[in-house]
Inverse folding.
């Protein structure tokens, strides 16, 4: 008898502790996403919004060359952002992980610090540097390295640059976490057994840090599909990525059902990617 | 042998240079923001002369100051809500096993992994459907929604070394669950809670995308307020305000670090505090 009341008490406090968070997630994550799914089958209203009338053709419109090209191009930019961040971030995370513990904490803090200044403001700093009469061109011209100012801003390269800048820390953090777990004794053993440094890296270090590589890649690739403001600012509005396409349906385009359908397609693509990821990495590494 | 030593030294120097280059990459635009906050030119396209005037003139720019206040209010209140709700939930999930835990887990990871734009648009659709006027309330709801999962995951991961028998001992000795939570559990998991709070604060202050969709005309946050300016040139008063934020952040970080070190010394004594591993905020 006593046991049963204890069990009930336990259940009651479990519900009391967990339900606020669960209710919040259901109300503001699950239901809204379900709602987008619903809107994606509705008919567009010319004045914005939608009419409660089934329209199954919305998804078919996606298979238009124009939209497919935007999706392909976004995926390409996202992939390039991921690869560049990985190549830049791996040696960097490695250097941090091999420094003394106190320096390590300081160095990691220095990576997080810029986040407190909104990414939009930091990106605007790059505009001041990269514009035609900006800091970079002025300096290069004064040093006589170039005669004519270079057009750096409002190009596809600038969009890629901005993406790498904003997302780079998301690659470094998981890489660092996995490198930090590395046992130095293993490296010693490898070199004592006669392995050259690059061989030690390829056969011992890199395989063990693969979880960090995968987690970092997901954390750079997925957000870069949606970062419309980087494309807006750095590309001068000429570059259109998935994020811009979706945003435009809700602002200037006024085609909510199509925007909803594009969002659902993006969600499905992300979930497919994550399904693949979950076969090789753990979800916990993503947070 | 000396060749090997030489190689080691070259590697060391080149890795320091490489790390410096990366930090320059991360901080160059911030340096530019600080420098151009002292610019005499309102257009702020090129540096024309040095002045301090923007540091008091910015207070006359009411929309700017209001948006900055809004950002702080949204960041602090959304962090507070997500830390309270999130910490209690993570302790609950750690303490009890029950059916449906897997479903909660996948619910937690959805907002962490899907692009933010989806979250922003889906909330916008929800708010318009229920005719909730966009404003501070919708902003705070939106920010809690993206930071809550991060808080839960962070607190939970820091709990992995937590010994549950301590809690049981407290309860067996007659402490109520609430008392056990505040006197035993909370002090132990405090580092995880602080890390979660810092993460929530950071995410909120850095957010552009979700705020873009859930902000009202009268309740713009700082980044949304200046969004239109960015392409044509951001005025020096915006940069002055950003500079104050940077300085404030650095002071807070130093204080957190100092307190952390003092707390560590109290807990573990002098020696261990140096070896104690502490990755800030993640």
């Amino acid at each position: 008898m006593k046991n049963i009341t204890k069990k009930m008490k336990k259940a009651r406090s479990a519900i009391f502790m967990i339900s606020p968070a669960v209710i919040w997630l259901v109300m503001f994550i699950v239901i809204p996403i379900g709602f987008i799914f619903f809107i994606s089958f509705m008919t567009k209203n010319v004045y914005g919004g939608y009419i409660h009338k089934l329209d199954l053709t919305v998804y078919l419109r996606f298979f238009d060359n124009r939209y497919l090209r935007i999706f392909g191009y976004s995926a390409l930019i996202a992939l390039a952002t991921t690869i560049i961040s990985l190549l830049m971030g791996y040696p960097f995370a490695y250097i941090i992980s091999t420094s003394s513990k106190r320096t390590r904490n300081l160095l990691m803090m220095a990576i997080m610090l810029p986040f407190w200044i909104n990414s939009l403001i930091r990106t605007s700093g790059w505009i001041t540097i990269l514009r035609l009469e900006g800091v970079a061109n002025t300096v290069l011209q004064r040093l006589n390295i170039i005669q004519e100012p270079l057009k750096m801003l409002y190009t596809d390269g600038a969009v890629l640059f901005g993406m790498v800048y904003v997302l780079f820390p998301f690659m470094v953090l998981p890489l660092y976490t996995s490198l930090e777990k590395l046992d130095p004794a293993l490296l010693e053993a490898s070199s004592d057994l006669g392995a050259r440094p690059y061989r030690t890296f390829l056969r011992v270090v890199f395989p063990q840090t693969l979880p960090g590589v995968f987690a970092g890649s997901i954390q750079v690739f997925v957000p870069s599909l949606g970062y419309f403001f980087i494309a807006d600012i750095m590309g001068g509005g000429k570059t259109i990525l998935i994020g811009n396409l979706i945003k435009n349906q809700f602002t200037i385009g006024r085609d909510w059902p199509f925007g909803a359908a594009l969002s659902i397609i993006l969600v499905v693509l992300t979930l497919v990617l994550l399904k693949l990821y979950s076969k090789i990495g753990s979800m916990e590494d993503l947070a | 042998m000396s060749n090997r030593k030489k190689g080691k030294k070259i590697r060391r120097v080149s890795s320091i240079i490489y790390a410096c280059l990366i930090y320059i990459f991360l901080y160059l635009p911030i340096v530019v923001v600080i420098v151009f906050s002292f610019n005499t030119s309102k257009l702020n396209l090129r540096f024309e002369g040095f002045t301090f005037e923007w540091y008091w003139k910015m207070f006359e720019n009411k929309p700017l100051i209001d948006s900055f206040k809004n950002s702080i209010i949204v960041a602090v209140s959304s962090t507070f809500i997500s830390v309270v709700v999130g910490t209690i939930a993570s302790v609950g999930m750690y303490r009890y096993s029950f059916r449906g835990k897997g479903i909660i887990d996948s619910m937690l990871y959805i907002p962490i992994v899907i692009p933010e734009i989806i979250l922003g648009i889906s909330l916008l659709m929800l708010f318009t459907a229920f005719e909730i006027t966009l404003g501070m309330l919708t902003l705070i709801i939106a920010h809690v929604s993206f930071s809550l999962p991060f808080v839960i995951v962070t607190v939970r991961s820091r709990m992995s070394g937590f010994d549950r028998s301590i809690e049981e001992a407290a309860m067996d000795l007659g402490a109520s669950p609430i008392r056990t939570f505040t006197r035993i559990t909370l002090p132990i998991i405090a580092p995880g809670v602080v890390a979660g709070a810092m993460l929530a604060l950071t995410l909120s202050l850095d957010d552009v995308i979700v705020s873009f969709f859930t902000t009202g005309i009268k309740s713009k946050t700082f980044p949304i307020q200046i969004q239109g300016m960015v392409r044509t040139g951001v005025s020096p008063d915006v940069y002055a305000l950003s500079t104050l934020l940077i300085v404030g952040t650095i002071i807070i970080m130093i204080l957190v670090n100092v307190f952390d070190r003092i707390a560590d010394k109290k807990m573990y004594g002098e020696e261990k505090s140096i070896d104690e591993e502490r990755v800030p905020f993640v």
Notes: The CA atoms of residues 62 and 68 of chain A lie 7 Å apart. The first strand of chain A starts at residue 42 and ends at 44. The radius of gyration of chain A is 24 Å. The beta strands of chain A are 42-44, 50-54.
